[in-house]
Specification:
The protein is α+β, with helices and mostly antiparallel strands. About 45% of the residues lie in helices and about 5% in strands.
């Protein structure tokens, strides 16, 4: 039987140099800090891989150092901020599960920080994010990495992974009810259209709502064996359109405040053909920032400021260069 006792509550010496736990987020980390944050991300990814292998083999899981690393990231907001570009970076779709999980941890923690969640609850978000696809490792690889669409039987099998993850966590000797509940509910939706129980918003744990947004965005953005990923702009447009009624509005707003497809200095083209530069982000309308229209588009030579959130007939049609993500 798979045992995940070490997944919760275990403490181990860090494998990377100590980080400045609890420090205020730094705008630009020093080079040595950035290297330490990257090592931490890589260690977490490797830890997820080892935990997953333990689930696949049905053996005992040794995850003490991995749990320390997840805890370390949860307590280091500047590391989460610095790792956001890493969460956007492409990876091999034929071996996506480990990197996907690491990225969901980063994105979920960024969202928790934006929501103002206290450290104790951020730890629950971090551990639940790290364990949210634990049950996926028990599924056949040919199912996980199938290049075509799943048939009805395969889809039913895939949807069992929240049950498996929940059972694995509940089998430990530790009190992990909140964590297990979040893992079980991360595919539930506000309007009751999710699974496995089809419950509605009031019955869904906050941690599950956070993971749902991070998990959906991460999956949309990256390549999978059966389909290509979307651009950050397309991901956010999909989230804001298709997420209505399904994803928690407050969590989604906080997520989008952290993850914008149009950071300041981005070059964009408006739907009327004019080019512009983004100068400020509207957190309530991340697809409608404040822009400065190029002087070459105006006879007067002046660069006009336009708040797209106040101009419903004007919008961004495309970016003029690859989106620069937070760094």
């Amino acid at each position: 039987m798979v045992r995940v006792s070490d997944l919760i509550g275990a403490r181990a010496a860090p494998s990377a140099p100590p980080l400045r736990l609890g420090a205020a987020p730094a705008a630009t980390p020093a080079p040595h800090e950035r290297r330490a944050f990257t090592r931490l991300y890589d260690d977490i990814t490797e830890g997820i891989r080892e935990v997953g292998e333990g689930v696949r083999k049905g053996g005992r899981i040794h995850a003490g150092a991995f749990i320390h690393q997840v805890r370390q990231l949860a307590c280091t907001p500047e590391a989460v901020t610095a790792l956001l570009p890493t969460a956007f970076a492409p990876y091999d779709p034929d071996d996506f599960l480990d990197r996907h999980t690491s990225n969901v941890v980063v994105l979920a923690l960024a969202t928790a920080e934006a929501l103002g969640i206290q450290e104790e609850n951020r730890l629950c978000v971090a551990f639940a994010s790290a364990a949210h696809d634990l049950g996926m490792y028990s599924l056949p690889r040919e199912l996980l990495y199938k290049r075509g669409a799943l048939d009805i039987s395969e889809a039913k099998t895939l949807r069992r992974h929240p049950h498996v993850g929940f059972s694995l966590l509940r089998s430990t000797r530790h009190n992990v009810e909140n964590l297990a509940r979040a893992v079980y509910q991360e595919h539930e939706r506000e309007n009751g259209n999710g699974y496995p129980e089809g419950v509605r918003s009031p019955e869904i744990a906050q941690e599950a709502k956070i993971i749902a947004v991070a998990d959906t965005f991460e999956a949309l953005m990256h390549n999978r064996p059966h389909r290509p990923g979307l651009s950050p702009f397309e991901c956010i447009r999909t989230l804001t359109q298709k997420g209505r009624g399904e994803l928690c509005p407050r969590v989604l707003r906080s997520f989008l405040a952290q993850i914008t497809p149009f950071p300041p200095t981005s070059r964009v083209q408006l739907n009327d053909g004019r080019n512009a530069e983004v100068v400020a982000v509207n957190s309530d309308s991340p697809l409608r920032p404040v822009v400065r229209v190029d002087a070459s588009n105006r006879a007067s030579g002046e660069r006009m400021l336009v708040d797209l959130s106040q101009t419903p007939l004007l919008s961004i049609a495309s970016t003029l260069e690859p989106t620069r993500l937070p760094s």
